[in-house]
Amino acid sequence: MLYREAGQFKSSYAEDQALFPIRQDRYGMLVLLAIAFVGVPLFASDYWLTAILVPFLVFSLAALGLNILTGYAGQLSLGTAAFMAVGAFAAYNFELRVPGLPVLVSFVLAGLVAALVGIAFGLPSLRIRGFYLAVATLAAQFFIPWLLVKVSWFSNYSASGVITTQPIEILGFVFDSPTRKYLLVLAIVCVLALAAKNLVRSSIGRAWMAVRDMDVAAEVIGIRIVRAKLIAFAVSSFYCGIAGALYAYAYLGSVEPDGFNLDLSFRILFMIIIGGVGSILGSFLGAAFITVLPIFLDVLLTDGAHLFNLSLPAGVTSMAQLVVFGGLIIFFLIVEPHGLARLWQIAKEKLRLWPFPH
Amino acid sequence: MKPLRAIAALLLAVAAGALSTQVIAQAAGTQFIGITGYRVGPYGPNGAAFFTGFIDYLELVNQRDGGVNGVKLSWEECETEYNTAKGLECYERLKTRTATGPTAIHPMSTGITYGLLDKAPEDKIPLITLGYGRTDAVDGRVFPWVFPILSNYWSAATGIVNFIGEQEGGLAKLKGKKIVLLYHDSAYGKEPHPVLEAEAKKHGFDLVMVPVPHPGNEQQSQWLQIRRERPDWVILWGWGVMNATALKTAQKVGPPRDKMAGNWRAGPEIETEAAGAAAANENNTARQTRAGTDFPVVQDVLKHVYASGKGGNKSLVGTVLWNRGMAAAMITVEAVRTAQAKYGKKPMSGAQVRWGLENLNLDQKRLDQLGFGSMIPTLAVSCTDHEGSGLVRFQQWDGKRWKTASQWMSGDRALVKKMVQESAAQYAKEKGIKPACLKG
């Protein structure tokens, strides 16, 4: 009833190709952005901003990067965290060694460095695919943190390999409070998500999907596979690199190479599997599921125990949280193997007919 | 429709969880202590022992003394799984629980410590990093909010060198000797490198560094390398499963195992017992806390806490890490008590506890009063010395329990102090901090 596009006519190509062809979606998106940019900074506490929203946005960006590579171009990668590490350490070194370089420029440069590294580790994808490619990207996952620890130049000879990020300052404005950091991350994520959405609708995006669905057929219809795959690796690593830089600068404040381990890569891979492979929205839903849900479960279980006056040892609640979380992942994968984004799709279709289904 | 309904129910449950956080108010008028602990994950067993001891001591203070000067203690433990991101989330969560904040945070992880270094001063919450974390934080003029109490990694590393020198018959005998550092390849494992390199130069021994990748359950190639090197001593700088593996592999591959010395993380019973006979009589571990149950405070815990069924886990009582957790809790409680002497008998805020920590003075008389006796060395913290002690003591595992292998001994204090000040000054310059002692 409410969600129905009857009466919305498209009279030009531009209208037909709009990002959100349905008016309700458009307004919904505007409301969401207004809440994110205005409502959240006004009402959210520091805890929400620093411990939940910023990591959610940073991981959404990393998941978006992986989704471009795995979801759209069909190249399985286990090196996401390594590319994030490249971004974080590159941004740190640009800021450290080029005095006066604006922080946003070093973020972009860090993304470009990550893109170059991504292309280098993407080269094997030209010859191998599937599980074998995953193993090749696994090499990146082991090699890059090792290199960052081994060559202390990258961490400015810090005894422990830990880097502490410089303050974020743009045009004399210092992003130091949780609200400011959140707004910066939100702005960057919105711009990059918009870019990604348009990228996957462009010719290169269609080329990726053609390669994903059947590379021989794609080659036959004239798609340059080498170019499509390497661009996918470059763009994906660029996104992961920026996510890594934000992870270091806006979230943790200090990072060590070992923080970017295989666990983190897996987490991001799970995000896109749960959220929806090959969906921009899915990256956000998956990141929300994986980063926010464990915290909620933890709070729910500890406080639930408090409410009922049970004194459970902390170990028990965290084990219980892992059990519930694992159970939920299995539940979602059984109910909807195509991820949360597909559930949203189904919900929208049902809404169109609501309240009078056939 | 079915999955949608299930998801809606789930969302409701989650929302209820978010609401209930508001419902819980900590008991008013208590000294709330926020604990970022870990009991699951690869380091879970270590964390469980430490945090059980920590909570057992807090429970003891409540049961036996009725709190600190009548102010009861309350606490909440949040699971970090030794993961930096989770640790920060816990920190943010515990920070908002009460008006006075979480008293002082024991991160018990180098990564979390580094993550909190910038946040703690902003939030005015002291960090107590009991023998780990950023070593140059000893300089309280640059790091007013960080307290690496007891001996830090550098003091421990030079202490180990002194111990080896003693065993060899004098530091002069170290010339031309070869010492292998077998370390956990992480921020923690790399911490002693600069000071050991300086010691190697000073005493003229040959230092060979052998990294073990995390978590360290495969060390065949490392020990083959060690055998090739034919070292005179091996310094074990491990944590968790790496230690047991090191001891077992050492037994298999066969370098002299009585010529091994480790830092405090290198030999809790959990791992040493797992290594079984391999460890017997062969491992010298530098300690800032002694193991054992023959301290009056441990007996008190058994009587007041475990007898009434409020204890955490009896099998852990008296182990190295459990005792260490007790000492950590005692330092927190004593800092609160010191602060109360100045600010009055009410729950202390983070800033007040910071003052208490900076003016903490635990001489032998006070330690005896508290029932800790010789479990930890005496402590006198000041603005320029946030370490307060720097003493270590070596214990040897004889197959069943720890035997004392040395008295409390210090490392190369002058060298450590010089390096700490250089390193802190560099940090201050990078961060634009003007080194100064905080007042009040």
Would you write up a description of this structure?
The complex is a heterodimer of chains A (358) and B (440). Chain A has 14 helices and 4 strands. Chain A has 358 residues and is mainly alpha-helical. In chain A, the strands form 2 sheets. Chain A has a two-stranded antiparallel ribbon. In chain A, strands 2-3 form a two-stranded antiparallel ribbon. In chain A, helix 3 packs antiparallel against helix 10, helix 3 (46-72) crosses helix 11 (262-275) and helix 12 (280-307) packs antiparallel against helix 13. Chain A is globular and about 70 Å long. The two termini of chain A are 13 Å apart. Chain B is 45% helix and 14% strand. In chain B, strands 5, 6, 7, 8, 9, 12, 13 and 14 form an 8-stranded mixed β-sheet that branches. A two-stranded parallel sheet of chain B has the order 1-2. A two-stranded parallel ribbon of chain B has the order 3-4. In chain B, helix 10 links the parallel strand 7 (233-237) and strand 8. In chain B, helix 2 (44-65) packs across helix 13, helix 3 packs across helix 4 (110-116) and helix 13 (320-343) packs across helix 14 (350-358). The longest helix of chain B has 24 residues, at 320-343. Chain B is globular, with a radius of gyration of 22 Å. At the A-B interface, helix 3, strand 4, helix 12, helix 13 and helix 14 of A face helix 1, helix 2, strand 2, helix 3 and helix 4 of B.
Strand content of chain A: under 5%
Number of helical segments with 4 or more residues of chain B: 16
Instruction: List low-confidence stretches of chain A.
Output: none
Oligomer: heterodimer
